Amino acid sequence: MSDAYRPTDPEDVLLLAADAARIVLESGGETYRAEETAVALSSSLGGEEAECFATPTGIVLSFTGLDGRVHSIVRRVSRRTMNLERVARIDDLSRRLQSGKVDFDGAASELDAIERLAGRSAIVSAAGAAAGAAFFTLFFGGAWNDALVAAFVGALLSRFTLLFARRAIPEFVANLVGGAGATFLCLVARYLGLATSADGTIIGVIMLLVPGVAITNAIRDTIGGDLVAGVARGADSFMSAAAISIGAGGAYQLWTLISGRMG
Amino acid sequence: MIASPLGPLWAALATVGFAVLFNLRRRDIPIAALGAAFGWAVSMPITLATGSQAAGLFAAAAVIGLWAELVAAFLKRPASVYIVCAIIPLVPGGGMYYTMLASVKGETWTAVTEGFSTLQSAGAIAAGLALSGAVARLLSIRRLTWGRGLRNPPK
Fold this sequence. Notes:
The structure holds two protein chains of two kinds. Chain A has a three-stranded antiparallel sheet with strand order 1-2-3. Chain A starts with 9 loop residues before the first helix and ends with a helix. In chain A, 67% of the residues lie in helices and 8% in strands. In chain A, strand 2 (58-64) and strand 3 form a beta hairpin. Chain A has two domains: 10-115, no CATH class; 122-262, no CATH class. Chain A is mostly helical. The longest helix of chain A has 36 residues, at 227-262. The relative contact order of chain A is 0.10. In chain B, helix 1 crosses helix 2 (29-50) and helix 3 (53-75) packs antiparallel against helix 4. The interface between A and B is large, with 68 and 58 residues.
């Protein structure tokens, strides 16, 4: 490092704080947590009067640096994948920064490590999805064979959502295809006698896609006064539910047509 | 809603599946699962006793929130890591789906009633979590410098 390098250069602090907030939002953290993280990081590294405005799709951060000038940055948030371990680690990092247990360089390299923190492998995720779908089928009163079918379809569904996310296919299309595929497979399974009740199996699998947490967070944000974030999350969950049910409704129609032909 | 005695068990196991999907740290998974079991064990009898699903969900969310805040204070982790996973069995994802499915099928009235009860459920859960968050802050389980409302933490 050159002698001119100053660890608390306001521009560096700005980038660090904005990146931390972006990772919080991308990993499924709450809007207020992203805002608090950005403010806490910038104020503990010398930013005065730090203010952050975050929505589920972007961050605006601004503060007065040690040089007396106002610095600000805008960050767009696009891809979103749940990784709560990242959220927890950034929370921990920001607490340690506030109490002075870690300096700028330490925080920067730690944040870099957090960003590169990989999620679970595809197989483990598929197993998680299978367990989620199977136990939700039992939870909603399905039988054992229904749960087995749900586990299989759920694992397939998680593979597909991963593939779609990697190819950057819009979430709406992914939900549409996922809802249709899952519904169709469950109907076929009942026709083949593998599942007893198609409806119980379908809702168990569809629980993997439905935006239940999103709609609850939308109301939590609105109660907390983050009105823009609340409305944005509400619209997001509305569109996901619409996509899934258009897919599922279409699959029902197609199945009625096919099974009608087969007599 | 179904009133199976095994409900809390299935809720906990489904939460384990989702906790894996959400990349929760391994030793946090049982905590989230236990929260889900507590929540459902509270929600079911209250729903049956009062006849109001919202009351059951409100109480369950409050219990899950308190459990999460308590554990989070001990382990120095954010409570919402546990909350997000543990509320999944309560959360009205199915309701969102049935609402939209009814509108796709053109059953407007079903869509309206389903949609209303979905919003009511989500609101009850959000209110329960807000209550537990407030209680945790009053008992100062959660550190004040890290609470919402103090936008510029003291240096």
